[in-house]
């Protein structure tokens, strides 16, 4: 009999509670950003669509200055500056093709510096071309890249020193500029 009373109480409790009133549906999540109130979204027509075509460059529309602002300096009227500048990445094979010139100056990234110097020393190992090598860091790069300068030099036995290479002329003859075997 005690079980019947407990079951009656549980069923009475379950049915005795009124169903909670549902509030009207509303947005669930964070409140809206106050930034959007101050700065409305940009016009989608002004968004970047990709690189401009070479034959049609867009021109910037002049923006009128606010009424209370004074124009201390004239607004730039030239073409807008690009957001990024594309530079060709350093290629060690392309650098190697420059070896054989009298003077070479390149900017080499830190991770390619050892390979570039290895190729220079290997090229000089033949004994035909000898270079004075100068390496210095690029300004303001925090040692991310280096300027490598190669200047061809010859050994002067009278001075007993390496001197800058002087071009003495070129010839199609395999025997040198004089053209004779002697």
Report how far apart the termini are: 134 Å
What is the count of DSSP helices, taking H or I runs of 4+ residues? Answer: 4
Radius of gyration: 38 Å
What is the structural class?
alpha+beta
The string of secondary-structure elements, in order, is HHHEHEEE
Low-confidence stretches: none
Please bin the fraction of helical residues: 10-25%
What is the arithmetic mean of pLDDT? 74
How many individual β-strands? 4
The major pleated sheet works out as: 4 strands, antiparallel
Gross morphology = elongated
**What percent of residues are in strands?**
15-25%
Describe this structure in words.
With 182 residues, the protein is α+β, with helices and mostly antiparallel strands. It has a domain at 92-164. It has helices at residues 2-16, 34-38, 92-98, 110-124, and strands at 103-109, 131-137, 145-156, 161-164. Strands 1, 2, 3 and 4 form a four-stranded antiparallel sheet that branches. A hairpin with a 7-residue loop joins strand 2 and strand 3 (145-156). The model has no long low-confidence stretch (mean pLDDT 74).
């Amino acid at each position: 009999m005690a079980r019947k009373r407990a079951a009656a109480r549980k069923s009475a409790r379950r049915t005795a509670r009124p169903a909670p009133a549902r509030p009207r549906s509303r947005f669930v999540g964070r409140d809206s950003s106050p930034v959007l109130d101050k700065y409305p979204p940009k016009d989608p027509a002004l968004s970047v669509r990709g690189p401009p075509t070479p034959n049609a460059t867009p021109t910037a529309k002049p923006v009128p200055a606010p009424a209370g602002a004074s124009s201390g300096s004239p607004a730039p009227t030239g073409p807008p500056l690009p957001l990024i500048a594309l530079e060709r990445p350093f290629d060690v094979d392309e650098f190697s093709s420059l070896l054989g010139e009298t003077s070479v100056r390149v900017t080499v990234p830190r991770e390619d510096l050892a390979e570039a110097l290895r190729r220079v020393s290997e090229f000089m190992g033949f004994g035909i071309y000898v270079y004075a090598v100068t390496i210095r860091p690029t300004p303001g790069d925090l040692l991310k890249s280096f300027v490598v300068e190669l200047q061809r030099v010859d050994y002067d036995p009278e001075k007993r020193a390496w001197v800058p290479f002087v071009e003495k002329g070129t010839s199609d003859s395999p025997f040198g500029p004089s053209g004779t075997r002697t």
